[in-house]
Amino acid sequence: MRIVVGLSGGVDSSVAAWLLKEAGHEVIGLFMRNWHDETVVIDNACPWIDDANDAMLVASHIGIPFQVLDLSEAYRERIVNYMFAEYEQGRTPNPDVLCNREIKFDLFAKAAQEIGAEAIATGHYCRKTTSIIDGAEVHHLLAGVDGNKDQSYFLCQLNQAQLSTALFPIGELTKPEVRKLAQKIDLPTADKKDSQGLCFIGKVRLPDFLQQQLEVKTGKIIEITNNHHKLISEAPNLEQQAAPIQWAKEDGVVIGEHQGAHFFTVGQRRGLNVGGKAEPLFVLAKDVTENVLYVGQGERHPGLIRSALKMTVSETHWIRADLALENGESSDVYMFRFRYRQPLQRGKIQRIDNGIFIDFESPQLGIAAGQFAAWYSGNECIGSGVISD
Prior knowledge:
Elements: E1 2-6, H1 11-22, E2 26-33, H2 48-62, E3 66-70, H3 72-88, H4 95-114, E4 119-121, E5 126-133, E6 136-143, H5 160-164, E7 166-167, H6 175-184, H7 206-210, E8 219-223, H8 238-242, E9 253-258, E10 281-287, E11 292-297, E12 305-312, E13 316-318, E14 330-331, E15 335-337, E16 345-352, E17 355-365, E18 372-377, E19 380-386
Parallel strand pairs: 1-2, 1-4, 2-3, 4-7, 8-11
Antiparallel strand pairs: 5-6, 6-19, 8-9, 10-11, 12-17, 13-19, 14-16, 15-16, 15-18, 16-17, 18-19
Helix pairs in contact: 1-2, 1-6, 3-4
């Protein structure tokens, strides 16, 4: 089988390519160049040119053809511009989830097909199986064997067509096993550190990066005390339980200034630059219209806690379309997470008119609009959706 591997210049994709070559496949290494501007990267961390060189060395070591694919224009249009728009509206997007849906398993996959690839492979820590359900072929996205590195959450927006040609060669391995194998076969990337930061951009100071397009605007930081009356009111229905508390300036005390509410996210601790408090301050909410940040002391501040979240039907995606909820239906068989590496949480998912609600069994901290919530049946990722305001 002719398989194109997305060689990122890291150890995971390097081992994935080697495994496929050892299995007797015709393997082609393809590096995606998705970013050019190194001025926003901290200390030149993970610059694309170093990654491309490492990917080329790996391809040479393994003995496979190697090409560079420039998708930077599409990446800026589909990922970066989306990020700017979301932050400007006060939401917190996840570019890694979008990059997989829009770039790696869309444009990259199409480019691979143009050179005759029957499948594409990546170095993700996840697995795929296929079964026949009601006479139709169904692909299942499963968590990786390494629970500490499982990356199925980042693929929670893939569809059946994208999964049909996807391969995840290292999904059955743990990270230590991948490192050990890379060292055994003398891969040039065997001891390379894992990349950090934004997908294909690298490690950045997010406010500096966002300031490329978003305006710096001085605004007030208002502290909400733990005993504020809004915190003990009980929401009478699921819609209100899923909605964040709407604060007003008169609800707290001004304790400092910030450079733009859109640069922050709910649950954020760093970057507030306000000291002298008994406990660390966390962002409880942000009002980008009035340019106000509402903060509270302590990671267990009641203002950070919500028992439910909402997604619109239009922004909800079912990998398993055969399991999608109809209006009025609900299910309590799934487990949920709304950030990478978060332990799966128990809860109930239900559809009410044009809303999909997740009602958690235990209250959750730091739910932010714009993030993706994903749900699982055992090890299988069933679907995901964008958290509404």
